[in-house]
Fold each of these.
Amino acid sequence: MDEPHTAARETAPGEHRKRILTGDRPTGCLHLGHYVGSLRHRLAFQHDHDSFFIIADLHMLTTKPSKDDIEHISEHAREIVLDHLAVGIDPAAVTFYLQSAVHEVYELQLLLSSLVTVERLQQLPTIKDMASAAGLEQIPYSLLGYPVLQAADILLPRAHVVPVGKDNESHVEITRQIARRFNSAYGEVFPIPDAFVVGGTLVGTDGNAKMSKSLDNAIFLSDDAATLRRRVRSMYTDPKRVHADIPGTVEGNPVFDYLDLFDPDTAAVDALKARYRTGTVGDVEVKAHLLEVLEAFLSPIRERRADYAARGGFVDALIVEGTLRMRDEARETMKAVKQAMGLTGAWNRIVRRAEKAHKRAE
Ligand code: ATP
Ligand code: MG
C-alpha cells in the first residue's frame, strides 16, 4: 500500500499557523460550482494555514438520509478527497477526516447545546431552507441542532478561521457566541473563530442561478472529455438568438459567465463578447471556444485525479491518517473542556468514594 506522505507537515513550523476548518457533506463528486465556491479558496489557504477538511457525514443525518445515502458515504468520501487532490490540494499539507469516526463531536455537541436557545436557532433562515429543500414539512430536532453540530465541528479542532459562503455566515456567528459563552462560564478553552466569507456562485449549464448536482446542471471535475463536450454543447445561452446574426446578450449568459471565470485570455473574451453583442458570432463558435477553455482547465485535473486513484489505497490511507490525527486533537480538546467544566472531577470523585468504601468493607 502506498503510504501518504506527511513529511511536509511535520517539518513545517505549523504550530503557529492559523487553523482552518472547512469541508463537505459526502453526497457525491464535486463540480465546477464547488471549485468556484470553495475549492479555489482552499487552494489559496493551504500553505499558510493548518487546514482541517471535514467529511461531514453526520450532517447528512440532520435532514432525512436514505439508507442508500448512508451506504455510499465511504465511496463519496473517497471521491471528494480525490477531487481535492485533483485540483492541487497537497495531501501532505492538509488533514482530511471522517466526522462520524471522531466520537468526541457527538459529546461536544451535547455539551454546547445548553449555550444556545431554541429561539435563536429557529430564527435562522437556513434551517427552514434546508427543511424545504429536503422536502420536510416539519423541522426535526437534528436539523434545529445542525448549527450546534457545526459549532462542535469548528471548536473541536479549535479552529481560528472558517471559510463560508455568505448564507452560512450566521452559523459561524452562533459558533462565536457559543465559544464566548463557554469561555466566560467555565474558562478559556476555545479561540473565537472568524468567518472568512468566500464569494462566488457559479450558474448552472441550464442558466439556473446555481450549479447543483441535484438539478442535473453541473459539469463535474471528473467528467471525461466526451461528457464535457456534451454538456457544453447543450448549454443554455441567449434564447432570443435563433440565428447567429441576431445581437445577443452577454449578461446572465452562462457561457460568458464561465469564460469570465475560466478563460485566462481576457482580451479574447472581450472580443468575443463584442462580436456576440453585434450578432457577428454564432453560439456554436462561442461554445467551441468555451469547450477548449474548459478542456484546458479540466484535463490536468482529470490526469492528476487518475494518478491518485491509481495509487492503490492512497486516498483511504490519507483519510485514516487524518482521522487519527483529528481524534488526537479531539481528545485533547475534550480533556480541556471537561476539566474546565469540572465534569472529570465528578466522575473521579465518585470512583474514589467507591474505592474507599470498597476498601473499608474489606
Ligand atoms: P445538492 O444538489 O446535493 O445540494 P450541490 O451540488 O448543490 O449538491 P452542495 O453539497 O449543496 O452541492 O454544496 C456544498 C457547498 O459547495 C455549498 O455550501 C457551497 O459553498 C459550494 N457550492 C455548491 N454549489 C455551488 C455553486 N454552484 N457555486 C458556488 N459554490 C457552490
Ligand atoms: Mg446544494
Amino acid sequence: MKKRLAILLSLLLIGMLILSGCAGTEQKRIVRIGHNQSSTHPTHIALLEFQDYINEHLGDKYVVEVYPSELLGSQTDMVQLTQTGAIDYCVASNAILETFSKDYEIFNLPYLFASKESYHNVMDDEDVTEDIFESTEQAGFVAVTWLDAGTRNFYTVKKAIEKPADLKGLKIRVQQSPTNIEMMKLLGGSATPMGFGEVYTALQSNIIDGAENNELALTDNGHGDVCKYYSYDMHQMVPDILIGNIAFIEKLTEEEKEIFQKGYELVNNVQRSEWVKAVEKAKEKATNEQKVQFIYPDQMPFVEACRPLHEKVLSRNEALKPIYQKIQQYNQKYPSQAE
Ligand code: GCU
C-alpha cells in the first residue's frame, strides 16, 4: 500500500515536472537530477556542489534541482526518465546499467579489482571507461562520471556468513542485474533481486534473510537495525555512474559543455572525499549504536567460487577482453594489501 502510494506520488511529481518545463523561472532551463540516496549521503552532498557550481557559472540560463531518496522513482525508473529526457541526469548503479549495455557487465564482476587503488585507477582511466560510458548513446544517455560506492559485503539478520556454504538456503537481496544473480548462484545463496528502496521492509518482514552492500546501507538505510552480522567478504566494488540525457548534453554550447564537464569532475572529487568520511562514520554508528558485528572471513573460498564468472562474461562479450587485460595490469601495480 505504502509502495503504491509512493509510486503514485512519484508519477504525480514526474507529471508535474514534465508539465512545468521551463515555467516559473521564465527563461531558465531547469536541470533535474535524481538519485536514490538520502540527503546526507556523499552523493547528495556532491550533487549539491554541482548545483552551486552550475548556478554560479551559468545561473542566468540554468537552474539545477537535485531530487534524493527515490523521489523520482527507483534507479531503473530514473534511468528510463533520463533516456527519454523527462529528467536530465540520474545516478545509477553500474549493476543496473548492465541491462542497458552489456559492456557494463565488466565492472559488476566479483573480485575484479585487487584493491581499492586498482579500482580507482581503472575508473579514472578514460582509455578503459570511455567506450563503455558512450555505449548507451543509442539508448539516449551517456555516463559523465563515476562515483564511489565502496565494497559490497554480505549482511544477514540471524546468521554470520563466514564461508560461502553459510549462504546456502538463505534468500539474499541482490541488485537487478543478471551478473549479480549468477554470482549468488555460484556462492550458493538464493538470489532475490529487488530495488534498493524495498530492501528494508523485505528484511524486516523476513521476506529475505540478508542483503549485500556497503556499510552506509546499514546506517543511512537502516538495514543495520535489522541485520546484526556484516561479513567483509568484499565480493564487489561496483561504481555508481552519473548519467545524462544525450540530447540535453549535445544541445549545450561548447562553453557550457566545458563548465558542465568541470561540474562532473567536481561531483567525482567531492563524492570520493566525502565517501571516506562517511564509511568511517557508518562503521562507528553500526558498531556502537546498532550493535552490528563486523566479521572478517577468509576471502579465498568466496574468490574461488566466483572465478568461473570472469571466463563466462568474457566469452560472451569478447570486446571486454582488452579492458579486462588492462584491469589486470592495474591489479599487478596495486595488488591486494591482504596478500
Ligand atoms: C548502493 C549504491 C546504489 C545502489 C544500491 C543498491 O547504495 O550506491 O547505487 O542502488 O547500493 O544496492 O541497490
